[in-house]
Write a structure and sequence with these properties.
single chain; 370 residues; 18 strands
Length: 370
């Protein structure tokens, strides 16, 4: 149990209970424990005490990550934690729906009004955590349906973590179009050694779409990610740096052609207390040395599984510039923290930096610890 507590202390940062804005400012470095990270790793629900977290966002049907959501976590006793979240749209569900929407021009709905339930418990030597989510929509006047269900399970012993995330249901329909995307699996492991965390993730996903019962799109995705991140703390502030080797293969089964990528992104950043009421954070990320991609299928440009695609058949031994910087602030008022982020300062045509509503406080969240 002592080693478990030590591992959590190493993983937790200066402002351990925060929001999407904090994750964006830290370039989603995988050492962070946060109300947002428990959706990927259910064990993170045990790395946080009681909290209420609220996220700004829209309610559009086809919106992906910038949606309104919130979560609440409550300790049932000294050894267990329970949490409920509403509005969160999992990457496990959304990734394949966005893939089909981007490559076919269709507009399948995102999960509508999803709910998540988390439960974690500490045993004598092992910690366990579970998560299950569900969403459903059925509009009968102008037929439109979607349904999703996801489950995750994790265990931690000593400095080791292992967890799995899988989709149980992932379907959507409208007009004569039908989407099927169940089969996502993420197998992951983490090892904490002093200030360093090592990570291994294996991903697989499937998606297909049919119109009038005729299959029009079918894609498979596989990836392996190996990474490490080191966190150095001093005087209540964190400096961190990390790197990941990523190899992915997106296969268009209809054409029997692939989009393969191999990249080596690195990042570093800081999260520092300016004073009792202010936390300052920022990070930079760039791919170095290895940045290869070959697309024989001509996948449409996009993010997620389509990151690096250009919409045409391509072969890069080194892809174009992809350096990104994000910065954010956390305002602390006793038990309340308000987080904001500033990112994406460049204009669409690569012109001078420009601060506007699209990048200044583009994501805002509030967390109350009780």
């Amino acid at each position: 149990m002592k080693s478990f507590i030590l591992a959590l202390i190493v993983l937790m940062s200066v402002n351990a209970f925060a929001t999407k804005a904090r994750l964006q400012a830290l370039n989603n470095s995988f050492h962070v424990v946060d109300p947002q990270t428990m959706f990927g790793n259910p064990l993170d629900v045990m790395g946080m005490k009681n909290f209420i977290s609220l996220e700004s966002g829209s309610q559009t049907v086809t919106n992906t990550s910038e949606n309104a959501e919130g979560s609440i976590s409550y300790g049932l006793n000294d050894h267990s934690q329970f949490a409920v979240a509403v509005g969160h749209k999992d990457d496990a569900i959304m990734g394949v729906r966005s893939l089909i929407n981007n490559t076919t021009g269709l507009t399948y709905d995102t999960p509508q009004n999803p709910i998540h339930l988390f439960y974690g418990i500490k045993g004598e030597d092992v910690v366990y955590a579970f998560n299950i989510s569900y969403s459903n929509k059925n509009v009968k006047v102008t037929p439109s349906k979607e349904s999703s269900a996801l489950a995750s399970f994790g265990a931690q012993w000593g400095n080791y973590q292992a967890y799995v995330v899988t989709t149980l249901i992932n379907t959507a329909e409208y007009a004569n179009n039908k989407f099927e995307g169940a089969g996502y699996v993420n197998l992951a492991g983490r090892l904490t050694l002093d200030t360093m965390t090592l990570g291994l993730d294996l991903y697989t996903a499937k998606a297909k779409s049919s119109t009038a019962s005729v299959e029009t799109a079918s894609d498979n995705y596989q990836a392996i990610v190996v990474g490490l991140v080191d966190v150095r703390s001093k005087d209540g502030s964190d400096f961190f740096y990390g790197a990941q080797a990523v190899a992915s293969d997106l296969k268009n089964r209809t054409m029997d052609k692939d989009f393969k990528r191999t990249t080596l992104p690195i990042w570093f950043g800081i999260e520092a207390k300016g004073n009792d009421w202010l936390t300052v954070r920022g990070s930079i990320q760039q791919t170095i040395l290895i940045n290869q991609s070959k697309d024989d299928a001509g996948f449409a440009a996009g993010d997620g599984y389509l990151t690096g695609a250009t919409g045409s058949i391509s072969d890069f031994s080194a892809a174009p510039n992809n350096t990104t910087v994000a910065m954010g602030l956390g305002f602390n008022f006793k038990n309340v923290t308000v987080d904001g982020v500033l990112k994406g300062l460049m204009t669409a045509n690569g012109g001078p930096q420009e601060v506007n509503s699209a990048n200044f406080l583009s994501q805002v969240g509030l967390t109350y610890n009780y």
